[in-house]
Write a structure and sequence with these properties.
4-stranded antiparallel beta sheet, 5-stranded antiparallel beta sheet, elongated, Thrombin, subunit H, Chitinase A, domain 3, mainly beta, 3 helices, 9 strands
């Protein structure tokens, strides 16, 4: 059977990690394969999925990216420090994500980046902003989507997170 290549309309599963080019630290990675339909339900930035076109199952791609091009340059006005007493206890841990709304009611995620005995600092910039990174992507699967996946525009999620809304008597 011929290996299919990644092109619009193909179902793709992959794993990836993001490496800081300066420190070689792994900044982000996925433990379980992510599934999507190329050109329809892309879950990664267009710059990343464009770099996958033409690849096939088993390929490992190293993709250097200019993160500022994807997320915009770092914006220091999105960094806030507040007295610890003004911050609920649940939010006093580095790495915690807090969703806040702007004046227009639009949600924005902030990540707790620093906690000391007096203050908590949160940052609304994407954690990759201002870094020089390489995406390392491993293509696990490339295939035609099932009719159900094509109708949904992406992978069909099953498992304990799905609640059956019909009651059985």
């Amino acid at each position: 059977m011929k290996n299919l290549i990644i092109e619009d309309g193909k179902f793709v599963e992959l794993i990836y990690k993001v490496i800081d080019k300066k420190t070689n630290d792994v900044l982000s990675e996925v433990e379980f394969p992510l599934g999507y339909i190329q050109g329809i339900s892309e879950i990664l930035s267009p710059e990343v999925t464009a770099g996958l076109v033409g690849q096939s199952q088993g390929d490992v791609i190293e993709l250097p990216l200019d993160v500022d091009q994807i997320y915009g340059p770092r914006d220091e006005s999105l960094v806030f420090t507040d007295h610890i007493d003004n911050v609920p206890e649940d939010y006093r841990k580095v790495g915690t994500t807090i969703t806040m709304e702007n004046d227009k009611g639009e949600p924005k995620d902030f990540i707790v980046t620093r906690v000391d005995e007096n203050t908590v600092t949160v940052d609304g910039n994407n954690p990759l902003c201002g870094r020089d990174v390489t995406f390392i992507l491993e293509v696990i699967t490339v295939r035609e989507p099932t009719d159900e996946e094509a109708a949904e525009g992406g992978p069909i999620v099953t498992g304990p997170n799905i609640k059956n809304t019909q009651s059985i008597h």
